[in-house]
């Protein structure tokens, strides 16, 4: 079972521990049943003249053992489930963090979101059910052993009836599983619609035609989910009723039919009927929890599949990465070629082959039209994308799994779709004066600041947030800064300040700057300018008219 496999990741003793507690609880309850039956038999034979203290005492001791084992089992299972989910969630998160960037971009957000939140919730919310089902299963095994000891005939009748019941149940289960598969699909569509609405709420508000059409699409998704949900629930109820009815049929066979055909059976019919009645509780729990378990199992399968897929696209990075030998001196590209993995070849885009060298302290601009490959190039330069062929070297050492992490650590970035973290993760030990200096330099002191390792607020205008992102990059104090169209949402005044004052100041401090830009008024600020044209790179004179409008 994938669920058990998933929960015991990194804990090989889990199954053994649960097995021992389960066996204690199961045997304990079967022994209780045995004692009740023995006492009843005695009373039937001899009448009640005095209390059988020995049996009563054994009953109490067994009841205590059973109670303790039960509490241990249920709470251990619940705890293990939470621990297991915690481990899985953390594992998935760390796998996402080390997955090949170009490949992970293709994964749908809903798939990652589902596995880390929804699927883990499916399992954890029902952890008590899973525990109860496990314990009921063990109890059934123990009671069946008791029945076997009482009468082999009764045992086989029960096995046959239960066997047929299970077969019907499994057949129904298959159909149910199919419905649950469908249910998950429509849930994913609904999730995508909700995130679409959230991301596009402005656009939806702004045009009633779009709003109406979107509402129709959303209602359809919601109706589909409700429809398939209802079908699945009906199947569950049918399955449950069928499971419990099978037991009443079993009871009827044992009480009414078997004694007629078997002499030896008569004596034990009362005991066996009690045992069968004793099984109804656990059976209904198992039947009820089947659908929950099925759901948890499917969640486990999805999470494990995701984990496997993430493992397949794991970036080949050595755990014990080497530090780079010298201080950064230069980065060079030799015949570097890149293509996107999911790209339809009919509309292919190929970057390269590129030869390039960037020296320490240089201020380099990358220009080119929309779709020319600038952002793609800087993702290779920053080590996010790995070239399909060719070599990227730093200080004449070719980058490889050993050095990738150390290489990325050299580069601070502000991508065009950069994310601004409110908390300054990784830069908590910055000098306060430094932070203050840059916040004033970027003219943000009146709207925000840094306190206790986080920005006081990041609820700012788009241009202001971009400034904060650059401040973060500067405070990270790394030798290279890479910027993708940083100034695109700055006002003319600040754009000028950025190109004429801030970039030269950073260069003065020794930072190497690689900036993608469309701002042709300021091309002269750069030391060198590289120009991309449909994936082909050339070095241009700073005054070259190409790239200007
Ligand atoms: N995630 C992706 N998957 C597949 N193809 C992509 C992806 N991102 C970009 N491309 C393709 O790669 C080409 C270069 O895109 P890139 O983003 O590098 O252009 P750019 O020069 O940065 O353009 P812009 O000035 O518009 O930012 C485009 O033709 C685009 O269709
Ligand atoms: Mg771009």
Automatic annotation (TrEMBL):
MF (Gene Ontology): ABC-type transporter activity; ATP binding; ATP hydrolysis activity; ATPase-coupled lipid transmembrane transporter activity; peptide transmembrane transporter activity
ABC transmembrane type-1 domain ranges (all copies): 20-295
InterPro entries with a match to the protein in the record: AAA+_ATPase, ABC1_TM_dom, ABC1_TM_sf, ABC_transporter-like_ATP-bd, ABC_transporter-like_CS, ABC_transpr_CbiO/EcfA_su, Cyc_pep_transpt_SyrD/YojI, P-loop_NTPase
Pfam families: ABC_tran (PF00005)
TM annotation in the entry: 14-39, 51-69, 137-170, 240-262, 274-296
Cellular location(s): Cell membrane
Main location: membrane
CDD domains cross-referenced by the UniProt entry: ABC_cobalt_CbiO_domain1
Domain ABC transporter: 331-549
Domain of life: Bacteria
Membrane topology: Multi-pass membrane protein
Alphabetical keyword list: ATP-binding, Membrane, Nucleotide-binding, Transmembrane, Transmembrane helix, Transport
Protein name per UniProt: Peptide ABC transporter
Source organism (scientific name): Thalassospira lohafexi
Phylogenetic placement of the source organism: Bacteria, Pseudomonadati, Pseudomonadota, Alphaproteobacteria, Rhodospirillales
């Amino acid at each position: 079972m994938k669920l058990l496999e998933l929960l015991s990741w990194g804990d090989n003793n889990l199954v053994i521990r649960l097995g021992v507690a389960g066996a204690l609880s199961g045997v304990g309850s079967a022994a209780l049943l045995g004692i009740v039956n023995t006492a009843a038999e005695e009373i039937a034979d001899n009448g009640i003249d005095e209390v059988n203290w020995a049996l009563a005492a054994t009953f109490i001791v067994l009841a205590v053992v059973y109670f303790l084992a039960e509490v241990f089992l249920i709470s251990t299972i619940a705890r293990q489930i939470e621990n297991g989910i915690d481990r899985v969630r953390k594992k998935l998160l760390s796998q996402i963090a080390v997955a090949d960037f170009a490949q992970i971009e293709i994964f749908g957000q809903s798939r990652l979101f589902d596995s880390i939140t929804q699927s883990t919730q499916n399992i954890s919310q029902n952890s008590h059910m899973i525990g109860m089902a496990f314990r009921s299963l063990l109890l059934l095994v123990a009671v069946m052993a008791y029945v076997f000891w009482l009468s082999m005939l009764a045992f086989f009748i029960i096995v046959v009836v239960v066997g047929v019941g299970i077969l019907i149940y499994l057949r129904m289960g298959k159909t149910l599983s199919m419905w649950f598969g469908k249910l998950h699909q429509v849930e994913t569509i609904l999730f995508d619609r909700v995130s679409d609405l959230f991301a596009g709420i402005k656009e939806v508000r702004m045009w009633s035609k779009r709003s109406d059409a979107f509402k129709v699409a959303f209602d359809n998704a919601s109706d589909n989910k409700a429809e398939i949900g209802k079908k699945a629930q009906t199947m569950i109820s049918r399955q449950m009723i069928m499971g419990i009815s099978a037991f009443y049929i079993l009871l009827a066979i044992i009480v009414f039919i078997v004694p007629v055909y078997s002499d030896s059976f008569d004596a034990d019919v009362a005991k066996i009927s009690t045992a069968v009645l004793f099984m109804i509780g656990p059976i209904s729990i198992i039947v009820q929890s089947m659908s929950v378990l099925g759901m948890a199992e499917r969640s486990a399968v999805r999470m494990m599949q995701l984990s496997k897929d993430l493992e397949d696209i794991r970036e080949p990075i050595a755990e014990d990465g080497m530090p780079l030998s010298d201080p950064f001196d230069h980065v060079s590209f030799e015949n570097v070629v890149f293509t996107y993995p999911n790209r339809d070849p009919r509309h292919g885009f190929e970057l390269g082959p590129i030869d390039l060298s960037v020296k320490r302290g240089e201020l380099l601009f990358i220009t080119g039209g929309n779709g020319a490959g600038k952002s793609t190039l800087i993702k290779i330069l920053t080590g996010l994308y790995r070239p399909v062929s060719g070599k990227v070297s730093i200080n004449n050492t070719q980058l490889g799994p050993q050095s990738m992490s150390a290489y990325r650590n050299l580069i601070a970035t502000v991508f065009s779709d950069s994310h601004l973290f409110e908390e300054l993760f990784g830069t908590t030990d910055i000098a306060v004066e430094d932070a203050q200096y840059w916040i004033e330099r970027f003219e943000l002191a009146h709207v925000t600041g840094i306190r206790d390792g986080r920005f006081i607020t990041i609820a700012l205008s788009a241009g202001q947030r971009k400034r904060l992102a650059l401040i973060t990059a500067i405070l990270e104090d790394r030798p290279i800064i890479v910027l993708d169209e940083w100034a695109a949402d700055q006002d003319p005044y600040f754009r000028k300040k950025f190109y004429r004052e801030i970039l030269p100041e950073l260069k003065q401090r020794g930072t190497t700057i690689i900036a993608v830009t469309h701002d042709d008024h300021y091309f002269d600020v750069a030391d060198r300018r590289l120009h991309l044209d449909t994936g082909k790179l050339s070095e241009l004179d700073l005054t070259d008219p190409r790239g200007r409008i």
